[in-house]
Structure prediction request, 83 residues.
Amino acid sequence: MKKDIHPENYRLVAFKDMSNEEVFITKSTANTKETLDVDGVEYPLIKLEISRTSHPFYTGKAKLLDTAGRIDKFKSKYEKFKK
Prediction:
């Protein structure tokens, strides 16, 4: 293995899944300016759009999240090609 290529500044970070408000804490080197108080301890906060607690592969539930109307935009864009 190569020496001195791995970061040394690991710390506990709170990751929050914004789709279901689930929070889990693990070590990370990711930079963030936000913090979150969990059980009286303040952790740096990383916001996630999807995690293991909301991803259909892990939950077994298929759900469609169309946050920006992307599906309607796609359908209207290609409507002219229908015969």
Summary: Residues 8 and 53 are 28 Å apart (CA to CA). The chain has a mean pLDDT of 82. Residues 70-77 form the longest helix (8 residues).
